[in-house]
Amino acid sequence: MPQTDIGTSDRILAELRGWVEHETPTTDAGAVNGLLDRCQAELAGVGAAIERLAGRDGYGDTLIARTPGEGAPLVVAGHVDTVWDHGTLAKSMPWRVEGDRAHGPGIYDMKAGSFFAFHAVREILRQGTRTKRPITLLLTPDEEVGSPTSRAPIEAAARDACAVLIPEPAGGPQGACVTGRKGTGGFRVSVEGRSAHAGGNWSEGRSAVVAMSRLVLAVHALTDLDRGITTNIAPVWGGTRPNVIPPEAGCRIDFRAPSLEAAEEVVTAIRALGIEEDGIRITLEGGLNRPPFPETPAGLALFETAREIAARQGYRLPKQHRGGGSDGNFTAVMGIPTLDGLGCTGAGAHAPEEHIRWADLAPRCATLCELLETLG
């Protein structure tokens, strides 16, 4: 059991509600920073050393809080941004508790887990708990769009760390943590053609939509489920009126791959679709964003420690590989032992039914807290 008293699930849920009802879409830096302001004030108030990195490119700030201690730190990182726009709470996903489920936008992915990290560090400092290693906590603003501004601070914090813990949602019905992830990436596609009247001058036109449709089918064909490679194309756009040959079109591509070799293969194949011929120009921007998160002996050792702690908390903790990426991809590929999926049980990430199983808040947070106290 952790030395630190992290409280009951009821108590954690009551404070987590305030985080969920403070909507933080990635695209609203002010909203994200408002939640970070609250976190900063509380962490500074219990003695954390605070570093605040100003946001850029329309994203919020990155908050870094450090506890005292000697030696290589233990890093814990969570994001406070969500995929949900302002008004979701009022219009379609109100805060509500129904039986063993608590609902609300972003509660599962990943405000519950990020709150775990914040709450555990705050209580460790408030209660004066001694830890084997100093702790570096990062609360970040832009994970849901690939961490364009927070990747560098995460990598910098991890570079000299003894280990990294990521409290992304626990996975599946059994609430598994994550010891490996696929690499993720994407492209933005722009297609230029030539406009013409769809009747009288059809032969003079070059349809950007038709050219894009061929590209879509080619990208879809790269999916290889046996090898763990998937592609998806959405959204798509193009054209203006049915009687006008469309001079422009575009789409976004998402891809997932289990290894760096497979990811490079997909990137090469997609980039080869950028052509300029017969009045059509296809331009692609993008590539691999999050490198694959490999399962390693050091990562498995972290898992075994977490599994033993979980057993003392009264629950079984399995492990899994996951197709979605996280900030753990960045640190794992650096060779830093990384354990992911240490957040709360639940389901519905990025979906209207998003929820956590709120009775699991205390035992899951206690597991993370004991890891923070004892790893090293």
Automatic annotation (TrEMBL):
Keywords: Hydrolase, Metal-binding. Residues 179-272 form the Peptidase M20 dimerisation domain. It comes from the Bacteria. The keyword Transmembrane does not apply. It comes from Paeniroseomonas aquatica. The keyword Transmembrane does not apply. SUPFAM superfamilies: Bacterial exopeptidase dimerisation domain, Zn-dependent exopeptidases. CDD domains: M20_CPDG2. InterPro entries: Bact_exopeptidase_dim_dom, Pept_M20_glutamate_carboxypep, Peptidase_M20, Peptidase_M20_dimer, Peptidase_M20A. This is M20 family metallopeptidase. Coiled coil: none annotated.
